[in-house]
Amino acid sequence: MIGTYVTGVLPRTQELIAKTRLYDRGRLSEEELETSFLEATKRVIGIQETANLTFVGDGMLKWQDLLRPFSEGLEGVEPGPLLRWFNNNTFYKAPIIKSDIKIQPSISNQQIDLLPSGKKWKATLPAPYTFSILSIDQHYQNKIKLMKKYAGVLNQEIKALEKKGFKYIQLNDPALVYITTAPEESKLKEIIEVYEIVTEGVKAKTCLHTFFGDASPLLKIVQTIPFNDIGVDLYETDTKIFNNLKLRDGLVLGVIDSRNSIIEDVQDLEKIIKEILLKIETNNLYITSNADMDFLTIDKAEEKIQVLSKLAGRLQGV
Amino acid sequence: MKKLFQTYEIGSLAKHNWRLKGYSGSKITEKDISELVYWGKKLDIDYEPLIKLLKTDSPHKRQEVVNWSALYAIKLFEKVGLDYVYSGEQWREEMYAHVIKNLSGFQFSGWIKSFDYRYFRKAAVIDKVKYKDPFYIDEFNYIKSVAKNELKVPITGPYTLIEWSFNEYYYKKNSNIKNLKERKLVSRKEFIFDIVDEALRPEFKKLIEAGVKWIQIDEPAITTHPNKEEMELFVEAWNRLVSGFNCTFSLHNCFSDYKLLAKYVSNLKNCSQLSLEFANRDNKKVGTKRPAYDDLKDFEDHGYKGAYAPGFLNVHTDEIASPEVIRDRILYVADIVGKERTWVSPDCGLRTRSWEITYKKLDNMIKGANLAREKIN
User: Fold this and answer.
1) Is residue A31 part of a domain?
2) Chain A: nearest CA to B232, how far in angstroms?
3) Is the pLDDT assigned to residue B78 strictly greater than 70?
4) Which of A58, A73, B16, B362 is 20 to 30 A from residue A273's alpha carbon, by CA?
5) pLDDT of B282 higher than 80
6) Helix, strand, coil fractions of chain A, as percent rounded to 5
7) Cβ within 8 Å, pair A297-B124
8) R_g of chain A, CA atoms, integer Å
9) Residue A242 DSSP one-character state
10) Confidence at A318, pLDDT banded by 50, 70, 90
C-alpha cells in the first residue's frame, strides 16, 4: 500500500496569525484567541481530509515549537533560551533539565475532539536523541542517561495517546541526521538501543522520522531500529543508499519540500519514487512532506498537500 | 582618549498604537493620545502638533506620523543617554519586508512563523532582482535633521535577505543543473550577488554621499547553514558589498552559532565591530563568573581585530537586568577583549518589549556602563 500524511506542525492560517499577534500585544482576549485556534484547527484538519490522507493529525497549531509541551509540561524541565531551529529562520526554547524528569498524564494536548472519527489519527512527538541534543542538561550531565529517562517518559506519553485512539505515532528526530548534531556512526547503535524503551509495549504503529540531513548512515542499520517505519528527507538524503536496501518494515519518503514555495511537479516526483521502488522491497510505503510545513503559508501547504494526494493516486498499483 | 564602553541600541523599537493607527488610518483612541502625551512629556517633546495631525486627514499624514514616531524613538535614545542613536526603525515595516517591498522581482506570500507568536512576511523571488525605489535614504535625511547624537544606520544584509526569501526565479533559471545541491548553491550565488549589486550597493552609495559615517549590517541569518560553502558565500557577499566605500561598517548577528561565525569574521573586509547576543545566554546574578561570554575567545583566537558589542541586555524578557549585573558583564568582556574594544548594546533590537520596559532596560544599561567605567578608573 502507499499511504500519505503530513509531517508534524502545519502552518497557522493567516487569520489565526493576525489574532495571535493581537493577543501578543494585549488586544485580544484568551477566549477570542481560543476560538481562532479552534477555527484554524478545523481548517487544517479539513485540508488533510479533503486530500484523503491516510493519517490525520490536528496540525499542532498551538505548539510553539516541537519541544515546548515537554519543556513546559514535564516536571524537572523548564523552557530556556531562544535558539535557532537547525538551519531555519525559526527558533525554539531550549529545554533546561533542572532535576529528575517526570511526566504528568498526557502533556502533548492533541485536539482529539476535532479529529474526524472516520479517519486514523496520527500524533507527532520529539524523539529522544533530538530532545537530548537540543536540551541544556544541568542534572544528568550525560546524554545517554537523559535519553533513557526521556525515552521512559515518552513511552508513557505514547501509551496515553494510544488510549485516546491514536493509531500512528511519529517521532521526529532531525538531530539524528543534521550535519552538526548527527552522531558518529559507531555511536548510532547505542542510541538506537535506548529507543527500544520508547516502543516497549506500544501497539500503535510507530515511525522514526528524520529530516534536515542525510539519513544514509541510519538506513545502513535500519534492521535494528525498533520502529515500524523509518522516515527520510529526500531533499537531503543521497538516494544511492536505496540500492538493495533491506528494510525492517515501512519506508516514509519526504517528497514534498516544506522549505521551498515552489509547488512540486507530480510527474517528476512520480519518476523519482518509481526509481526508488525498483531498488527496495516494502509493503508499506508512505509519501509525506519532508519536514514540518510551518515554513510555508497555509495556502502553499494546502497546494503541496494536494500534490501529495495526486501523487499517491498515480502511484497506487505500482 | 576615546570614551570607554560607548553605547547604542541595535535597531528596532516597538511601535506605539498611535503610530500604527495613524499610519493605517484607523481610529485613534483617548488611550492612544494618553500614550503619546505620557512619552511626549517624559522625552521633552512638544506633542500638541502630533495630536492635531492625528485628528486631521492631511495627504502627508502617513509620512508625518512616521517622522513623529522616529522623533520619539530618537528622543528616547538620547534621553537615556546612548552615544549613538537612530530611528528605532519606526520608518520600517520590519527589517526584511522594508527592503523587499522596495525592490522589483519579489512577491510576498504572507506571514511565516519565526517563534511563538512572532512572524515575518516572507517573499518569493520570482524575477531578476532590480532596484525600484530608495529605501533608506529618506529615513536618514530626516533623522540627520532632528538627532543631536551621533548616528549609526542599521541595514539588512544580503545573506539574510536571500535566506529569508523563497528562491524561485534563480532556482528555476538553473534547472539545467542536474545535481540539486549544486543547483541550489549556484542559484543562491546569483541571487545574493544581484541583491548586492542591484539593490544594496546603489543605496549604500546614496547613503554615504548623504553623510552616513557608520552602517551596521544586520545579518541574523548568517550561520543558518553551518557549512563551508554557505559561510564563504556570506563572506564573499559582504566583501563585495562594502568594497570601495569610505564608511565604517559593523556586523550585527544574534541567536546564532558563534563558534562557527568566529572562524569566518576575520575574513570580512572593513568590519570594524561585531554586535552579538550573549546576554540571552548569560546568568542573571551579580558576579565575576560569566562563562556565557567565553565564546568571544574564539573570535580572538581566529584573529578578529575589531571591537565587540557582545550584548548586555536580553531583549526577549521583561526582566530588567540590574546595573550591577550589566557592569559585571562589561568588565568580564573587557578582560577578554580589552576595554578599548568593548562597546555596550543590547542583544538585539528591543521591538518586542514595551517602551516602559525598554526605557528601564536601556537606562540600566547606561548605568551599568557608568559603573564599569568607575570600576576601571
Assistant:
1) no
2) 16
3) yes
4) A58
5) yes
6) 40, 20, 35
7) no
8) 19
9) G
10) low
Which residue range is the domain that position A204 belongs to?
Answer: 2-11+51-315
Structurally, chain A folds into a number of domains equal to 1
* B153-156 and B103-115 beta bridge pairing: unpaired
The enclosing domain of B240 has a CATH number of: 3.20.20.210
Average pLDDT of the residues in A15-26 = 95
Dist CA B281 CA B278 (whole Å): 5
Asked if the structure places residue B92 within a domain, the reply is yes
Comparing A9-18, A81-90, B152-161, B245-254, the range with the smallest average pLDDT is A81-90
Whole domain around residue B227: which residue ranges? 80-376
Q: How many CA atoms lie within 13 A of A108 on its CB side?
A: 30
Which residues are bridge partners to B84 per DSSP? Answer: B8, B150
Asked if the model's pLDDT at residue B337 lies above 90, the reply is yes
ipTM: 0.93
> Touching check for B280 and chain A: CB below 8 Å?
yes
Three-state DSSP at B215 gives strand
Q: Which of B109, B255, B281 sits opposite A91 (nearest CB)?
A: B255
Contact A92, A134 (CB under 8 A): yes
Residue in A closest to B282 by C-alpha = A81
C-alpha cell at B219: 545579518
Indicate the DSSP class of residue B100. H
pLDDT on residue A316: 85
Q: Is B215 inside any structural domain?
A: yes
Give the CATH number, domain containing residue A162.
3.20.20.210
Give me the total of CB pairs closer than 8 Å, taking one residue from chain A and one from chain B.
Answer: 81
Mean pLDDT of A165-193: 94
Angle, vertex CA A42, rays to CA A37 and CA A46, nearest 5: 150
Q: Tell me, what's the pLDDT at B161?
A: 97
Report the C-alpha gap between A314 and B270 in whole angstroms.
Answer: 56
Is A263 an interface residue toward B (CB < 8 Å)? Answer: no
Query: Grid cell 527589517 — which residue?
Result: B95
Higher per-residue pLDDT: B207 or A83: B207
pLDDT tens for each residue of B84-100 = 999 999 999 889 999 99
* Domain-embedded: residue A220: yes
Residue B57 is assigned to a structural domain of this protein: no
Q: Which residue of B has its CA nearest to A63?
A: B116
Cβ proximity of B59 and B22 under 8 Å = no
**How many domains does chain B divide into?**
1
Q: How confident is the model at residue B179 (pLDDT cuts 50, 70, 90)?
A: low
Mutate to test the interface with B, among A178, A261, A262, A271 (most CBs of B within 10 A): A261
Residue B347 lies in a domain: yes
Q: How far is A128 from chain B (nearest CA, A)?
A: 22
Residue B176 predicted with pLDDT over 90: no
> Phi/psi at B126 (nearest 5 deg)?
-115, 0
Cβ distance A297 to B119 less than 8 Å, yes or no, reads no
pLDDT at A283: 83
Query: Between A104 and B336, whose confidence is greater?
Result: B336
Whether residue A44 lies inside any domain: the answer is no
Question: Rounded to 10 degrees, what is the CA torsion of A68, A74, A77, A79?
Answer: 20
Q: Which residue has cell 543558518?
A: B224
Asked if the structure places residue A63 within a domain, the reply is yes
All cell numbers assigned to B4: 570607554
